[in-house]
Amino acid sequence: MNIQELLLARFKTALAAIDAPENAPAPLTRSTRPEFGEYQFNGAMALAKMLKQKPRDIAEKIVAAVELDDVADKLEIAGPGFINIHLSNGFLAKQIPAMVSDAHLGMEKEAQQTVVVDYSSPNLAKEMHVGHLRSTIIGDAVVRVLEFLGHKVIRQNHMGDWGTQFGMLLAHLSDKLAAQEVAETALEDLEHFYREAKVRFDEEDGFADRAREYVVKLQSGEEQCMTLWQQFIDVSIAHSEEVYNKLNVTLKREHVMGESAYNPELAGVITSLKEQGIAVEDQGAQVVFIDEMKDKEGKPAAYIVQKSGGGYLYATTDLAAMKYRSFDLQADRNLIFTDARQALHFKQTEIVGRKAGFSRPETTYEHCPFGMMLGSDGKPFKTRTGGTIKLADLLDEAVERAEKLIAERSTDLSEEERKQVARIVGIGAVKYADLSKNRTTDYVFNWDTMLSFEGNTAPYLQYAYTRVVSIFRKAGVDAASLNAEISLQEAQEHALAVKLTQLVEAINTVSAEATPHVLCTYLYELASLFMSFYEACPILKPGIDESLKQSRLMLAAATANTLKVGLGLLGIETLEKM
Ligand code: ARG
Question: Which end of the chain is more exposed for a tag (fewer CB within 10 A), N or C?
């Protein structure tokens, strides 16, 4: 149950009962300190102003009118007229059983929306790099949360599989194949392959011309060239899939909807823009001048949709994609995860696309930008020699490092178990380090902090989870079969129960704002509150009252389930033993 929504509904009824004007604001927030209760209703001040009465008098009227006997055991008026709400233990106790073993944590589904999520979207000419790591991880967590809430999610991997750079690559590939190499080997290291092709393009006589011919052949769909292109794309997608598997990400080949898929639509996009007088010719190119975005001299931003030679651009494809998602896929929401440097592009695309009718007005266009991943020197993350870091290598290193740590900590694991733990902890650490940061800020990639068993990290949470489940092992009970009355006596029990009920708020925020860090913070706080509870409230102490023991086991089980499901929503696995 969403307690915040429940409270809000009750306060709105109360406002109506005291004849408050319909537009009276009803702000309800979390309390900042436990002594102020859990929530605070702050509507009295604004209403008092509207009615020209004293805020505290109004607050008293609201308190008298609001019906919260089943939810709160104390309402108190503080300061100028804040109403502090203390949730009752009886109410909280009723919320917990649904969270004990249900994979859905007792949450009701939201109204279903169709949400198109564009994420990962690497450029196939090159190896996936760390920018795509962020897009992949963050996008996948948001996708999982949306599906958990019952929305219909359509994944779109908008891969960069088209463009003039393919001319050079295909010319180079065709030479390699002519020399009896197979595509898989030739393209084993895409970064290396790209460099080789570039050197030939810059230095070798005649190669640049051949590359250009390939561009023309590609654009006209010449059969042999298309076969070659398809080979290139297949190998390159396979590289990405390898990374997705390692990362435990839900993207599959069927979600690929690369730039090339929009080729047949691009001419129509331009015609439509021209016919509507939105695009005009400027030095041979087709350009949209965006009046809504002017520079200091008052010159409107120029958004190019077709080059003077007739070639299309990234922007043209995005306009076609907008149309496809809004009309063909019937998206209610359209989310796109890329780094913040593309913010201007998407802002302009939205203005132009909406003006041209490429989106139904009710479809959202939400660019979800993220900051950069930095090295310890504060500069963009690179290898020691300044090269781009291959994602697959980075993930292998994470697992290796985790394995060393595990070997030092846990001695009673078999070789095989240790490998499994290392994979789950290592990958979890990389993902969580990324997800737990506010998406829009840059962050410093640091092996030691992300792999630490202390602080807001994956290993800490994964370890917290195994600690909780070890209680059931020791007690010899199956958590799923628990079914006891919950009684909350100690402050730590109350605090833990409150936190458990607030998962739904965290998840709703992630869904609305595409910010997985909110769920990370929630899980970290939950784990920390559990640790305090466990210290203060013994469960397995000999001689403990049986009903108290059962009640506390219920709290522990709800915590374990929440940690497991919550980490699962972030795409992070848990372990029964580590
Ligand atoms: N391939 C692009 C890049 O690597 C990201 C594409 C994002 N999606 C889009 N519809 N433009 O920067």
Answer: N
Cross-strand pairs, 402 = none
- Write the residue with the smallest CA distance to atom 4 of ligand 1: 122
SS3 334: strand
The reply to whether ligand 1 has any atom less than 6 angstroms from the CB of 553 is no
Ligand 1 atom nearest to CA at 118: 8
Q: How far is the CA of 511 from the centre of ligand 1 (A)?
A: 22
506 lines ligand 1 (CB under 6 A): no
Domain range 391-569, CATH class: mainly alpha
CATH topology (fold) of 3-87: Gyrase A; domain 2 (3.30.1360)
Q: Give pLDDT, residue 451.
A: 95
Tokens found for residue 60? 């008293």
Q: Locate the domains of the chain by residue range.
A: 3-87, 165-257, 263-370, 391-569
Task: Give, for ligand 1, the residue of 161, 237, 240, 342 to mutate: max count of ligand atoms closer than 8 Å to Cβ.
Answer: 342
pTM for the whole structure: 0.95
What phi, psi does 125 have (nearest 5°)?
Answer: -70, -20
Residues 6 or more apart in contact with residue 103 via CB below 8 angstroms: 565
Do 3 and 13 touch, CB atoms closer than 8 A?
no
The tokens describing 327, both together, are 């009309």
Ligand 1 mutation target, pool 120, 121, 269, most atoms within 8 A of CB: 121
Q: Out of 119, 158, 251, give the residue to mutate to test ligand 1, the one with the largest number of ligand atoms within 8 Å of its CB.
A: 158
pLDDT for position 559: 98
| Strands 72-78, 82-87: pairing kind | antiparallel
Predicted confidence band of residue 385 (pLDDT cuts 50, 70, 90): confident
Residue 301 near residue 290, CB atoms below 8 Å? yes
- How confident is the model over 499-516, as pLDDT tens digits? 999 999 999 999 999 999
**Residue 318 CB–ligand 1 contact under 6 Å:** yes
